[in-house]
Amino acid sequence: MTDQAKELGNALQQRGYRLTAARQVILEVLVASGGHMSADDLAEKVRQQAPGVGRMTVYRTLDLLNELGFIRPVYQGTGAAHYILLEEGHHHHLICSTCDRVIEFDECVLEEIERVVGSRFNFQVQGHLLEFYGRCQACQN
Ligand SMILES: [Zn+2]
Ligand SMILES: [Zn+2]
Ligand SMILES: [Zn+2]
Q1: What pLDDT does 141 receive?
Q2: Taking Cα atoms as reference points, which of 26, 57, 54 lies closest to residue 42?
Q3: SS3 of 15, please?
Q4: Are 48 and 101 in contact (CB under 8 A)?
Q5: N or C end of the chain: which has fewer CB within 10 A?
Q6: Residue 35 CA: which ligand is closest?
Q7: Which residues have beta carbons under 5 A from ligand 1 (an ion)?
Q8: Which of the ligands is closest to the CA of residue 139?
Q9: Taking the CB of residue 21, how many other CB atoms lie within 10 A of it?
Q10: Phi and psi for 94 in degrees, rounded to 5?
């Protein structure tokens, strides 16, 4: 398994969930894809690698990962939700409202905000998904 898939597997086990062979394949495929996938796409890829893993198992595992804060659904356009991995607890997008292009970026300046709102609401922040909307360079002309 890749390191990140392993980390997710360990985190599941630490929370008392069994790391079944099916879950291992699902984590592996999710990480390999960078996490931008609809549930159906993921189920299809998992099926190619492990024909025994059913669609419902994939959906339930996604629900679990979502509950635990490892992934979040994002809705772009009218299609099915895409699940994205919160790598090290966060994930950032620039989304062009004109052409729907999604640009990923790593720079994070949100620690301060997490701290401020966390303490104001006595909320333990575990991660964030940041999306900026606007127009990409190509669409500005
Ligand atoms: Zn654009
Ligand atoms: Zn992304
Ligand atoms: Zn961030």
Answers
A1: 83
A2: 26
A3: coil
A4: no
A5: C
A6: 2
A7: 96, 98-99, 101, 136, 139
A8: 1
A9: 10
A10: -110, 125
Backbone angles phi, psi at 25, to 5 degrees: -65, -45
Residue located via tokens 């640009």: 103
d(CA 94, CA 99): 12
Which residues surround the ion ligand 2 when the cut-off is CB under 5 Å? 84, 104
Residue 57 Cα, ligand 1 centroid: separation in angstroms?
A: 36
Indicate the residue type of 132.
F
Distance 14 CA to ligand 2 centre (A): 26
CA of 26 to the centre of ligand 2 (A): 18
Distance 93 CA to ligand 2 centre (A): 6
pLDDT tens, N- to C-terminus, the chain (141 residues): 678 899 899 989 999 999 999 999 999 999 988 778 899 999 999 999 999 999 999 999 999 999 988 898 888 777 788 898 887 788 999 999 999 898 999 899 898 999 999 999 999 988 898 999 999 999 998
Residues forming a β-bridge with 99: none
Q: What is the pLDDT of residue 37?
A: 87
Q: Which residues pair with 95 in a beta bridge?
A: 102, 133
